[in-house]
Every structure is written in C-alpha cells, then in structure tokens.
C-alpha cells in the first residue's frame, strides 16, 4: 500500500492490522461536504477566471479574422492577450497553471495556422487535445482507473485512496470519467466535420460557442456524482495522525527506559 492510499488509524485496538475501508453502501455526503465538493471542483477546473482565460484568446482571434480576414493580425492579437493574462497572474502572484496551459494551446494554434496559412488550424491543436482527452477518460474508466479520480484525488486530500478503500467514490469517479469522455467526444463529433466542410468564420464561431457549455455540463455531472458518493478519506490527516502516534510511542518508550 502506497502513501497515496495509506490506511486510516484503526477505529478499535483489535483492528490495528486492518485499514479502514468505507462501506460500499455508506451514506452520501452531508450539505456541508457537498458545498466543499462544489467549491473544490470549481477551483480545480479554473473557476470563472480560468474559463475567461480559456475563451478570450480564441474569441479575439475569431472576431478579428471575421472582420478583416487577416491571419497574422488575428494570431498576434490572440498571442498578445494570452501572454497578458499570464502576466497579470504573475503580478498578482496567483496560480498560473491554467493561464500557462492556455498560452501553450494558443502558441500551438498560432504555429499551426501560420505554417499552413489556414486560419481553421488555429483551433486544430485544441481539437486534437480534446479528442485525446476524451479517449483517455473513456479508456481509463473502462480499465477501472478513472482519470477524473487521479486528477481530483489530491484536490480532496484523498489521493488514490478511493481505488481500494472507498468503492462509492471510485464508482462516482468512474461515472464522471465516462461523462467527460462522452461529452468531449460529442464535441469532437461536431467540430471535426465542420473543420473540413464549413467556412472558416462559421467554424470558428461554433468552436468558440462550444468552449464553455460542454465543460460546464461535465463539471455539473461530476458534482452530481460526487455529491451522492461518500465523503473522501483524508489521507493527509491520517498520515499526520500516524506520525503523532509514532512520536508518542517513541516518547513513551524513552520514558520507560529512563524509569528502568
């Protein structure tokens, strides 16, 4: 058993060798736990600011290209606003992972579009990433190691304890991964035909329109599944408790030796 799913401090002395496993029929989270789950989920996926940073560069690219059909100016504007968003986060000393992921996505899109001379290719790296991610969600869920659980385990301080010790959480993560996979695959099924057949501006506006709604639907379904699941096992608290118990045992042993 790894530190990612270390056993809970036993409930009874005679259970000392047995890790605590949440029963499969354990009750769902209470209202307070559900609120924590909602806040943690929203924060994990970037929140409102993360969504703005995801949409704004592409929106600017499509808007400018719709107006003047100039690929270079559109690309420069998208790249500039993406870098500006990262700079703002750096100045404010905020988390930059979402902004940096946006910069890399925009950079690849700009490179593809400028190399091919086709403005549609600005969206192509993101589409390929979405396709790969959808397959990863579906395959991982089918394999019994759902990707959503791997991603959200550290957020809820449970790491990978849900794999063997919390079957209700594992079931919820599996459902969530299937939901993400199906939603993203559906998005790809819409965009890829348009990429080949629609004109650039229509394709661009549909691609922008499909940025947020599928994401919100997937996050909402994830929250629904997790809200009905048992609360996570806080493995960090467990390890702290074990460390304190070990220190107490060492102190007691030292005191016993002094007395002897």
Describe it.
The protein has 260 residues and is mainly α. The protein is built from 10 helices and no strands. The protein has helices at residues 31-44, 47-68, 71-92, 97-116, 124-142, 147-152, 167-197, 200-209, 213-227, 235-259. α2 runs antiparallel to α3. Residues 7-17 have low confidence and may be disordered. It comes from Streptomyces finlayi. Residues 1-23 are annotated as: Disordered. This is Membrane protein. The chain crosses the membrane at residues 50-67, 73-91, 98-115, 135-156, 177-197, 203-226.
Question: What are the SSEs and their pairings?
Answer:
Elements: H1 31-44, H2 47-68, H3 71-92, H4 97-116, H5 124-142, H6 147-152, H7 167-197, H8 200-209, H9 213-227, H10 235-259
Helix pairs in contact: 1-9, 2-3, 2-4, 2-8, 3-4, 5-7, 7-9
Summary, kept brief:
With 260 residues, the protein is an all-alpha fold. The protein has helices at 31-44, 47-68, 71-92, 97-116, 124-142, 147-152, 167-197, 200-209, 213-227, 235-259.
Helix content: over 70%
The radius of gyration is: 24 Å
Q: Give the biggest sheet.
A: none
What is the 3D shape? elongated
Global structural class: mainly alpha
What percentage of the residues does DSSP assign to strands (E)? under 5%
Number of helical elements: 10
InterPro entries: UCP010219 (IPR016566)
Organism: Streptomyces finlayi
Protein name: Membrane protein
Pfam families: DUF3159
């Amino acid at each position: 058993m790894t530190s990612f799913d270390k056993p809970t401090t036993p409930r009874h002395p005679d259970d000392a060798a047995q890790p605590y496993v949440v029963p499969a029929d354990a009750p769902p989270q209470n209202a307070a736990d559900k609120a924590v789950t909602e806040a943690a989920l929203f924060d994990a996926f970037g929140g409102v600011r993360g969504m703005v940073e995801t949409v704004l560069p592409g929106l600017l690219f499509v808007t400018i290209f719709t107006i003047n059909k100039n690929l270079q100016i559109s690309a420069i504007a998208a790249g500039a606003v993406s870098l500006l968003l990262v700079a703002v986060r750096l100045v404010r000393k905020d988390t930059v992972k979402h902004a940096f992921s946006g910069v890399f996505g925009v950079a690849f899109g700009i490179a593809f579009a400028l190399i091919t001379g086709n403005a549609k290719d600005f969206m192509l790296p993101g589409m390929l990433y979405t396709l790969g991610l959808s397959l990863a969600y579906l395959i991982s869920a089918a394999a019994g190691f759902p990707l959503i659980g791997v991603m959200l385990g550290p957020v809820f301080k449970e790491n990978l304890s849900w794999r063997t010790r919390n079957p209700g959480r594992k079931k919820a993560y599996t459902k969530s991964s299937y939901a993400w996979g199906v939603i993203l695959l559906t998005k790809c099924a819409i965009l890829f035909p348009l990429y080949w057949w629609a004109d650039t501006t229509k394709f661009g506006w549909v691609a922008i329109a499909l940025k947020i709604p599928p994401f919100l639907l997937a996050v909402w379904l994830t929250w629904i599944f997790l809200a009905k699941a048992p609360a996570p096992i806080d493995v960090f608290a467990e390890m702290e408790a074990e460390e304190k118990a070990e220190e107490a045992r060492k102190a007691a042993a030292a005191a016993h030796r002094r007395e002897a």
